[in-house]
Amino acid sequence: MGADALGFGNSVVASNRSSTAGYWNPAGLVGVDKWLDGTLMHSEYFAGIAKYDYLGLAHSIDEKSTIGFSAIRFAVDDIPNTTQLIDNNGNIDYDRITLFTAADYGFLFSYARKSAIPNLDLGGNVKLIHRKVGDFAKSWGFGIDFGAQYTLKEKWKFGAVLRDATSTFNSWIFTLDNATKEVFTKTGNEIPENGLELTLPRLIIGGYRKFDLGKKGLNFASEINVDITTDKRRNTLVQSNLVSMDPHMGISFGYKEYFTVRGGIINAQYVKQFDDSKKLNIQPTLGVGVHVKGLYLDYAFTDIGDVSVSLYSHVISLRLQLNEPKNVKK
User: Fold this and answer.
1) pLDDT at 103
2) Residue 323 falls within a domain, yes or no?
């Protein structure tokens, strides 16, 4: 969420203090010190086939607490439904093709607060998940996230977020008509049944450090995050049947708070070649950001798979900070 995070290798659980923290680490919302902090992002994958939209809002209640809201939509629109392409007489009739949308929606309600322990911020999400596949299927789900950030001697920042802390449940309901079921049966496809989809907890930890380079406003920053999963072996750098770990990192060079150049490495995987050897593939990211008063404009350049397979993608996000309107009555 946010081109700034993508350009930084999605390594922001320790440093993110903006409205996108509702997604990355809700504890970071404490860093929002404006009346309203909002972020918009739109990106398209696979030559525009899939569309990814995000809205994040954060409101500072007082010096110690902040609330936030995030809305996410990832969808493929205008998918041809060809189950009725052939009529009862065995003739192909293209007029029988209809279109449908497969979409995932996420709504996060966040709260963050400074704890009684100095430099320790805590936060959490309550999230509602809705998935819809045309008129054929839909699901509703519910989950909880917990996050924390700690600053050490104003130089080091550490963060941790436990996503889907109690596991996230999605209850699926399928509503296939008899004609579609008949097509599924004749073509050897399994007829789906109502069921429960479970997302297991994921722990993400990270460390961040920023360095001042002389007295001319130049700075350098870096952060390393590690995603820890327990749903058996994954294709990650550290993998086992008990725990898998996926490290990723980002670096940046900036001039004061006005201009930043970012780079990162994500999705490091060993891929088997035709000769049964394994090759390490990585997904590099690059990005730039411009900050003028309360306006942030960020751009990221990457591929969505790995450097040898997928096409490159361009992602742009806009963030705006607003002070409290003068005509608002306390």
Assistant:
1) 93
2) no
Concatenated DSSP letters of 2-48: -HHHHHTTT--TTT--STTHHHH-GGGGGG--SSEEEEEEEEEETTT
Distance of CA 248 to the CA centre of its chain: 14
Please give the average pLDDT of every successive group of 10 residues along the chain, which has 330 residues. Answer: 87 90 92 88 78 90 91 90 76 82 93 92 93 88 93 89 90 83 80 85 93 85 91 81 88 89 87 82 87 88 57 78 69
Q: Which residues contact 137 (CB under 8 A, 6 or more apart)?
A: 131, 172, 173, 174, 175, 192
- The answer to whether residue 329 sits within a structural domain is no
Q: Distance between CA 244 and CA 291 in Å, rounded? A: 37
CA distance 17 to 221: 15
CB 104 within 8 A of CB 74: yes
CATH of the domain at 303: 2.40.160
Rounded to the nearest 10 degrees, how much is the dihedral formed by the CA atoms of 11, 159, 212, 4?
A: 30
- Whether 21 maps to a domain, the answer reads yes
- Residue 316 inside a domain? The answer is no
For tokens 């995050």, what's the residue? 225
Strand 295-303, strand 312-322: pairing? antiparallel
Q: Find the domain containing 205 and state its range.
A: 3-309
HSE-up of residue 299 (Cα within 13 Å, Cβ side):
6
The total domain count for the chain is 1
Return phi, psi of residue 53, to 5°: -125, 145
pLDDT at residue 205 in the model: 94
Provide the β-strand partners of residue 52: 43, 74
Structure tokens at 57: 């809002």
* Bridge partners, 164 (sequence order): none
HEC states along 257-283?
CCEEEEEEEEEEEEEECCCCCEEEEEE
DSSP character at residue 28: G
Sign of the four-CA dihedral 245, 305, 24, 262: positive
200 DSSP β-pair partners = none
